[in-house]
Amino acid sequence: MSRIYDCADEAARKDGIADAASAVRRGELVVLPTDTVYGIGTDAFNPRAVAGLLTTKGRGREMPPPVLVGSMRAATALIDDLGSHGRDLMEEFWPGPLTVVCAATPSLSWDLGDTKGTVAVRMPMDPVALELLKETGPMAVSSANKSGRPAATRVDEAVEQLGEEDVAVYLDGGATESSVPSTIVDLTYAVPRVLRAGAISVEQLRAVCGTVIGEPRRSPARSQEAAGEEAREADGTGQAPEKDIPQSRD
Question: Name one Pfam family in it (predicted).
Answer without folding.
Answer: Sua5_yciO_yrdC
